[in-house]
C-alpha cells in the first residue's frame, strides 16, 4: 500500500522538494492533497502533474481561477481556511506534511493531529506558538510528529534505538548565516539582499531572514524543547559554518552521536515521509576532500539578540513564544519591504514581548488572540 500524502504548502520550498521526493519514489508515495496560499499557477501545474484527489487554494478570491483551470481533470477544488482545516481529516490521507510558512500552519496542524494523522512537521512555528497543546494532543492521539527540520531530523535519527537512554544534552548546529562574524557597526548597513544570501541552504525568504538574525535557531530551540521533552538547560546551540553535522545528541555516558551529510532538505523530508524505512536515494554524497575542516564556535547572542530573546520567551513560557513568533513575522515582513533596518528587528520584538499581556496557561483561543494582538501592536512599532 502506498502512503497517501497531503502536502500543506505544496508551492513553497519544502513542498516542491517533497514532490520531487515523491516523484523519485512512485511505488512508496502517492499525492492525495495539495494546498497553497496564493501561488495558483504553480498549484495548477502541480495538480495536473501529480494527480491529487483534492487541491485547496487558501485565498478564496482565487478559487474560480483554480477551479476553472482544473475543470476537466477530475480533481476536487476547495478554497479558504475552513477547507484547509478539513482536508487533513480525510480518511484517504495517511500522512500530512505541514510545509506552510509561519503562524498559518497552526490550526491545520492542530486539526490534523486531532484527526489522528501522522505528521511530517516542517512548520516549526506551530510548535513555537503552541508546542504544549500540540504535543499533548499528539500523545493522546498516538500521533508521531516526525521532524522535517534538518536539525531535529538529525536528533531524531540519533535517538533511534536509544529510547531507554536519557539525553544529557543536545547541540543544535547553526551555520551562523550570512552575517557570521560581522560587528554591530557592519550590521547597521546590511541590505535585504545581503540577508537573503544564505551561505549553505536554499530556502524561502522568511526562513532565510530568520537564519540571518538567528531567530530561526531560537525557534528551533523551542521546537526541540517540545519534540524531545527537554528543559532549556539541555538544549545548546553551536555554530558550525559548513552545515555538514546537522545536530548532535550527548548521552549520560558522555558519548555524542551526530548525524551528518551534505546540506540538502530532501534528505530530512524523505526520512520523515518514509519513516521508519530509509529509502535509497541518488542525492549527492559527501566527499571528504571537499571538507578538510569542520569548524565550531559559540553563537554571539550579544550581536544576534534574537537567539537570546527566544531562550527568554521559552523560559517565561505561557503565550510568550507566541508573542515572539507574531512579532517576528511582522518585523521580518517590514524588513523585507525596506520599512525597518536589520538591527531594529530584535529591538521591536523585545518591545512587543514587554507590551503584550502575558498569559500563563493559554488555551488555543488565547493564542489566536495573542497572535492578532501582537501583530497589531508590532505593525504600529514598525511604523515609528
Ligand atoms: Mg533547521
Task: Tag the structure with descriptive keywords.
four-stranded mixed sheet, binds magnesium ion, 384 residues, Rna Polymerase Sigma Factor, Chain: A, 3 domains, 16 helices, Rossmann fold, globular, alpha/beta, seven-stranded parallel sheet
Structural class: alpha/beta
Number of domains: 3
What's the count of strands? 11
Low-confidence stretches: none
Small molecules bound in the structure, each named once? magnesium ion
CATH class (first level) name of the largest domain? Alpha Beta
- What sort of overall outline do the alpha carbons produce when their principal axes are compared? globular
Helical stretch count?
Answer: 16
Strand line-up of the largest beta sheet? 4-3-2-1-5-6-7
Question: CATH superfamily of the largest domain, called what?
Answer: NAD(P)-binding Rossmann-like Domain
Helical content stands at 40-55%
- The CATH topology annotation of the largest domain reads as Rossmann fold
Mean pLDDT reading: 96
Can you write the helix and strand succession as a string? Answer: EHEHEHEHEHEHEHEHHHHEEEHHHHH
How would you sum up this structure, described in words?
The chain is of the alpha/beta class and 384 residues long. The chain folds into 3 domains: 3-143, Rossmann fold, CATH 3.40.50.720; 150-262 and 285-307, no CATH class; 317-384, Rna Polymerase Sigma Factor, Chain: A (Orthogonal Bundle), CATH 1.10.1740.10. 46% of the residues lie in helices and 15% in strands. The protein has helices at residues 13-24, 40-50, 63-69, 81-87, 106-114, 124-140, 150-159, 184-187, 192-196, 205-213, 215-228, 266-274, 305-316, 320-336, 344-355, 364-383, and strands at 3-8, 29-36, 54-57, 76-79, 95-98, 118-121, 145-147, 167-174, 235-239, 245-251, 256-260. The strands form 2 sheets. The chain has a 7-stranded parallel β-sheet with strand order 4-3-2-1-5-6-7, with helices on both faces. The longest helix is centred in the C-terminal third of the chain and has 20 residues, at 364-383. It is globular and about 60 Å long. The termini are far apart. The relative contact order is 0.11. The model has no long low-confidence stretch (mean pLDDT 96). The protein binds magnesium ion.
Amino acid at each position: 500500500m502506498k502512503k497517501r500524502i497531503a502536502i500543506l504548502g505544496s508551492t513553497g520550498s519544502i513542498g516542491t522538494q517533497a514532490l520531487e521526493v515523491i516523484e523519485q519514489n512512485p511505488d512508496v508515495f502517492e499525492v492525495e492533497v495539495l494546498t497553497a496560499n496564493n501561488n495558483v499557477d504553480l498549484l495548477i501545474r502541480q495538480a495536473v502533474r501529480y494527480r491529487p484527489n483534492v487541491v485547496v487554494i487558501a485565498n478564496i478570491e482565487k478559487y474560480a481561477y483554480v477551479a476553472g483551470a482544473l475543470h476537466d481533470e477530475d480533481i476536487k477544488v476547495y478554497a479558504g481556511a475552513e477547507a484547509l482545516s478539513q482536508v487533513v481529516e480525510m480518511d484517504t490521507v495517511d500522512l500530512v506534511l505541514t510545509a506552510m510558512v509561519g503562524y498559518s500552519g497552526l490550526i491545520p496542524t492542530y486539526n490534523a493531529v486531532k484527526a489522528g494523522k501522522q505528521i511530517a512537521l516542517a512548520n516549526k512555528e506551530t510548535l513555537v506558538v503552541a508546542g504544549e497543546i500540540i504535543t499533548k494532543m499528539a500523545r493522546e492521539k498516538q500521533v508521531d510528529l516526525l521532524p522535517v527540520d534538518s536539525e531535529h531530523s538529525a536528533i531524531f535519527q540519533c535517538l533511534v534505538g536509544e529510547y531507554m537512554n536519557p539525553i544529557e544534552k543536545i547541540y543544535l548546529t547553526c551555520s551562523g548565516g550570512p552575517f557570521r562574524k560581522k560587528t554591530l557597526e557592519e550590521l547597521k548597513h546590511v541590505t535585504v539582499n545581503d540577508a537573503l544570501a544564505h551561505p549553505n541552504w536554499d530556502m524561502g525568504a522568511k526562513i532565510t531572514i530568520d537564519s540571518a538574525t538567528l531567530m530561526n535557531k531560537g525557534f528551533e530551540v523551542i521546537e526541540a524543547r517540545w519534540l524531545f521533552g527537554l528543559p532549556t538547560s539541555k538544549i545548546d546551540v553551536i555554530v558550525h559554518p559548513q552545515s555538514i553535522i546537522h545536530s548532535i545528541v550527548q548521552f549520560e555516558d558522555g558519548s555524542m552521536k551526530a548525524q551528518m551529510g551534505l546540506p540538502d532538505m530532501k534528505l530530512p523530508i524523505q526520512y520523515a515521509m518514509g519513516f521508519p524505512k530509509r529509502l535509497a536515494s541518488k542525492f549527492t554524497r559527501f566527499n571528504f576532500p571537499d571538507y578538510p575542516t569542520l569548524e565550531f564556535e559559540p553563537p554571539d547572542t550579544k550581536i544576534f539578540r534574537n537567539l537570546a530573546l527566544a531562550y527568554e520567551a521559552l523560559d517565561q513560557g505561557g503565550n510568550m513564544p507566541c508573542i515572539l513568533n507574531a512579532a517576528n513575522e511582522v518585523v521580518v515582513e517590514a524588513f523585507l519591504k525596506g520599512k525597518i533596518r536589520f538591527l531594529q528587528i530584535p529591538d521591536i520584538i523585545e518591545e512587543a514581548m514587554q507590551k503584550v499581556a502575558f498569559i500563563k496557561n493559554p488555551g488555543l483561543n488565547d493564542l489566536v488572540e495573542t497572535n492578532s494582538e501582537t501583530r497589531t501592536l508590532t505593525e504600529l512599532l514598525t511604523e515609528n
